[in-house]
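Protein 1 of 2
SEQ + STRUCT:
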Amino acid sequence: MLTAIVVQQNWRSLTATDDALRGFVIVRATLKAMEAVSAERGPMNAAMGADPPLPSPITRALEDARERTNAQIADLLSLYRAPQNTNGAKEFTHLQRIRQSLLDAREGADAAIAAPRASISGFNLWTVVGNMVALVPELRATMSDGIALVARNQGEDFDLLTLALLAGDLREQAGLLGSTFAPALTKRRSLTASDQLRIERVVGRIDKLRGLIEANIASMPRHAASPAYRDMQAQYFGEGMNYIESVRAQAEGADEGASVTMYELGANYVPRMQSIVRFRDLMLDGVERRIRESRVAAIRVLLTTLAAAAMLTSALIIGLALFRKRVIRPFVRATDIIGKIANGGAVADIPADEYRGEVNHMFKALNVLNDNAAAVRKLELERDRLIQDLAIMAETDFLTGLLNRRAFEKRLEAALRDLRRDEEGLAFILFDIDHFKAVNDTHGHATGDEALRTVADLCRRTFRQSDVVARVGGEEFAVLCRSRDADAVHEIAERMRVSISDARIAAGDGRRFGLTASFGVAHARGSDARALAQLSRRADELLYKAKLNGRNCVLWERRV
């Protein structure tokens, strides 16, 4: 029994490292696929910004980028294909859908490249870019199980993996920052307010990611002093961001915008982003090295345990006459120790070198067992943290990815509780898609779901990161904004209404149709407790009036 327990514990340690390595391979392959999709946008933007006929370097760069993306996604698919992964059917199917979405996005890009430049609007250009951008979060979601495997089985290395994941997100945002200039540089015009808003959003995310990387790496002086980290700070955050600022300054000036083309922007900006990739790969190499070292150590401990068990068995056969004195008594003590470990209790003292020969090896094995039990308890803490993450997912609407009603009501209560200063204001935007039942009846529920996802995407593009956006009913959405300026909130709501009315949804039969929405906007100062308490009801009443007034409008009210 003792032999079985010790071997089982060490076998679990070995299988844990194998699981961690399997999860790590998935994470690394997914990050490389994300990088390839992000990198493909560069030559795509250059092609859309160039006058026909396309120069051969741009055409060749786009073809090479697409081939690299195809290869990375094929590698990723192979990790989920049976018999290598018997439980990967769901992820495999999801990746197939992502690959089809990639082909659709490329088809849209090719159409924009082939069209006369004067016939393509800045909005259409950004839609093409957005279709490619939307693929990266889809890919990121596929590696959640891989991250969980590493966290559960190699939790002590999660700090390096966190840095690698942050670097992967930084690489995507860095590429997206360059893509935000595509409409202005392609149309040879100055930056619009929408362009500026997109740039500020991406720069804000980059600053946030930089802060997270610096906070995490502060506890790892060896990596903080690495050439890869210093290169990233100098080449991307230094030279790369300075270059972007110079292009932005040009594009803010004359009516014809900056003299830089998308091809020139990519040629000067993309090489500086490679420092991010090098830093990410350095962190990934560190995680892989530690996992493999843990695996070698687990094999060594397992073999040592098996050898000790063999020696113990030989000693029991040969030393039958000395059983009572030299074996039975130590076994009684060992049983007590094992019981404490099995019950999760602390072992005050495991004897070391108190006995001789195989018995002494047995207590050494018990020390290993005790250490493994402590490691298991640590992993259980990591599991509890993962359960907390799942609780957060429970607050998310599964269809749109926005907050659900319960989560929104919690945040509304918190906002009302914390809003105390007189100069602060709180706005409640409630809007409802007009005639949504007719959409379901005419085009089917699948198209209706796609319409809801489209509205959710428009919410993410229109509202600020600090705003709380939720789907609170079938086709009803609510937004909570902190703002002292009620006019600004009204403008945001009006911009959202226009975005919805401009959007076009593809039905299952190929037809495209539009949507409209009615809005109710209520605003109150932080000092007006009564108005704040009635904020939700007032927004609902205004929405009702908007419906009565013919729909597709924004009715608003503010308290001075």
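Protein 2 of 2
SEQ + STRUCT:
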Amino acid sequence: MTALTLSTAAAAGQRADAIVVGVAKGAEGPVVAPGAEAVDQAYDGKLAAVLETLGASGAEGEVTKLPAPSGFKAPVVVAVGLGAAPEKDEAYAAESLRRAAGSAARALAGSKKAVFALPITDAADAGAIGEGALLGAYSFDTYKQNAATNGKNAKNGKNGKAPLAEVALLGGKPRDKAYKAAVERAVAVTEELNRARDLINMPPNDLNPAAFAAIAQTAAKDHGLKVQVLDEKALAKGGYGGILGVGAGSASAPRLVKLSYTHPKASKHLAFVGKGITYDSGGISLKPAGHNETMKCDMSGAAAAFAAVVVAARLGLEVNVTCWLALAENMPSGSATRPGDVLRMYSGKTVEVLNTDAEGRLVLADALWAASEENPDAIVDVATLTGAMMLALGSRTFGIMANDDAFRAAIHEAADEVGEESWPMPLPEHLRKGMDSPTADIANMGERMGGGLVAGLFLKEFVGEGITWAHLDIAGPAFNEQAPYGYTPKGGTGSAIRTLVRLAELTAAGDLG
């Protein structure tokens, strides 16, 4: 993990591989952002002109490298684009800082240390820059080896480059409690988010339900969480028909994992429920070629819920958080659930399975009812649930559905605050009729149009009466198949984790109902 520190030393005297400065798009060309004054002065105030000559415009994510000025111990200056310069007397948005830091950190792969001289007006800015740098430095190289060394002393990362090892933030206040807390928070959030990315990127032959459960148990021991794991025998005894039905075709048996964080002064209780399909072939309703290659990411919701409860524990938030991981592998075989089968769920309700590739809602239904039995103040489930949500919102935005408009709005605001793109979605009651079944209480499929909303309505059926609930469909942003951007890598992204953490923080502070 990349180290993060605060520094008050002068930029020129910093022993580092690079100095990172910000450049923004001004009305008449690129402008050097605050924080880089000393660097600009060393270029005789002409840094912006030099960058423009090199083709820099200040566009978001743009990275330009140039030799450091005379007298600097660092050999390179890295100018990273912040996008449009803010109006006079306005500060740079936290998300702009976060993305710029991520772009710079990724560009500095292979470096031991970089000093970031980006705009910092308060502790929140320092936290955003630190968070972006630590997320941008991420790489997943567990399964790679350097052919030139035959695997011995192999280096990580693209072209054999290891991630940036250390980030020092200039302009911070190392002895200030607010700045120290911001850095500690950034480290906790990014370490757990990057662990979630590792889980999402891990191939399914190594990450099956039992393996995921074991990782959760280790984390629980490390961070003082209570943990309970229900194996296939306990699930059968308890009547968890949804989870068992989805996992019936796999040689890797399903699990339901409960992780609990409690604070002695907490007055509120949140439950996070995550869909954890460690591989989704579609089951008997088999996915076609071209649609199953990335289905190791179908446990991203469980990874998010898992990360969020660990962060809550690491930060000591004054709120009780329970996390439920509904883990199964959806495979075709002679023992697999068939289209037309009827499952009796943990709630007692029966479900006619019309499509075995609509499996996520089945495992979530059991976990939602289990979470409801504890009567928390609110439940939030997270899932890569529907392709329909991707069609509606694209690959970078997750949908929010809820049985309470104010709660849905609060989650949307929390997501916006931490820089995650989301959008409130409705739950139209007229779509419920499409799931009527002549055989069972409800079918797992309904109308094709509005399929993401139909899935939300299905889940709503398994939330306890009177409990505030929201559903986050992260099918779009959970796994990035395109080129990296900002602090977002290719592959698993850790979508929704920062939103859940912020939700827990707001609840702990009494700012969320």
